[in-house]
Each structure stands twice: as C-alpha cells, then as structure tokens.
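Example record used in the benchmark description.
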Amino acid sequence: MKIIIINGPNLNLLGKREPEIYCNITFEDYFLELRQKFTSVDLEYYQSNIEGELIDKLQEVGFTYDGIILNAAGYTHTSVGIGDAVKAITTPVIEVHISNTFAREEFRHHSYLSPNVKGIIIGFGMKSYELALQSFL
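Model output (structure tokens):
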C-alpha cells in the first residue's frame, strides 16, 4: 500500500510554532515514528508553503497512490484550487487537522476540501495522522 502525507503552509514549523496548539515535535521526527510503526506501508511525506506546489503534488500522485492524507493547513479555508484538485483525482483523500478547527476562529470552520474527501479527522493532535493512516488499512 502506497500512501503519502501532504502538509501545507507553516507545518514545516511544527515543534517551534505555537506548541500549545500544535505540538512540540517536528513533523520529520513524527514521520519517522509513523514509518517505524507502519512498516507494511510505503509511506511518503511532502510539505510545501506554496498553494500551486500542493496542487501539483495532488495531481502527480492522485491517480496512482492508494491514499493521500492531506493537511492543507490555512489553505483548507481559502483554496478553491486545492478543493478542486482533490475533486479531480481518483485517489481517496483524508483531510487532517492537528487542532480542533471548530474551537478556533470562525473562518477556520469552513473547508473547501471537506466536500471532496473520503473523511475528516480533526483535533487529535499529531495522532490525527495515525488515525487517518489506520483508516486506509
């Protein structure tokens, strides 16, 4: 099984940025833990702060991978383009958020991705990624 985790803007700052909301570990360190835990999965990771690069990656993997775990971060609430890219591909996508977006600012309560994804996991911290991965298994 081939699955990719795609992270959007500012998630490269995990471990540094607002650890009380997000976490105190880098995503790279967490990703190594996931790979060790799920050895039967061909697991990849991609991160970009640039909307077009996220769309390009979705289009690149969206017809050949078994699953995509997508945390589009702030673009979740603003990007029609990423929502359209998710709708256009055939690989199932799980939308993930580390924090409970519904317990935060009002603008974070809307997602352009949600209507086009297989499922949504919100608010379980870094464990959200593991829950999404388990959903594909």
